[in-house]
Write a structure and sequence with these properties.
Oligomer: single chain
Strand content: 5-15%
Radius of gyration: 22 Å
Number of helices: 7
Strand order of the largest sheet: 3-4-5
């Protein structure tokens, strides 16, 4: 689902100039000399520090309905390389990152390489600005409550008489 094999192959193809850091647990992954795997981080501050110490977040999956890790990385000021399908594609634009074709090692490798030729500081700033302006809880919660209000606003509960059960011998 996360398409980590595509990501690992893309970074392997790019060579030793690039180093991939994966955070989390799951299935055993292929070994690569330019790959470091860090265990799952329960402490959100440690995870944020790890994210903020990276140059870019690469998300090769195309099945995400939203992509919370992408939004978290954007809030940390990271530009994003993602795929042009799924929820990630809705979060990333030309100002905040680059989108690659799904399931394509070559396309993902090209996008990773290309992002380093762009103004990554400016992209990171745009990513952070977008995360704060559009996805802060002060923005999101009123929208969610408004949707519930629309859905339930005309709701009238149906009150019924209690059923009577007669038992006879």
């Amino acid at each position: 689902e996360k398409k980590l094999h595509v990501l690992i192959e893309a970074v392997r193809k790019l060579g030793e100039r690039y180093h991939l850091v994966l955070v989390g647990s799951g299935d055993e992954l292929p070994h690569a000399s330019n790959l470091t795997i860090i265990p799952f981080q329960r402490d959100q501050r440690q995870l944020a520090q790890l994210l903020a110490s990276c140059d870019v977040l690469v998300h090769p999956g195309d099945c995400e309905t939203f992509g919370l890790i992408v939004l978290e990385a954007m809030a940390c000021g990271l530009p994003i390389v993602g795929t042009n399908r799924g929820g990630v594609a809705e979060l990333v634009d030309r100002e905040t990152g680059i989108l690659a074709r799904p399931d394509s090692v070559d396309s993902l490798a090209e996008a990773i390489e290309a992002i380093y030729w762009r103004d990554m500081v400016r992209m990171g700033q745009a990513a952070r600005r977008k995360a704060v302006e559009r996805y802060d809880w002060d923005q999101i919660l009123p929208q969610v409550m408004g949707r519930y209000d629309v859905l339930l606003g005309g709701y009238q509960p149906v009150l019924r008489e209690p059923e009577r059960i007669c038992v006879t011998d």
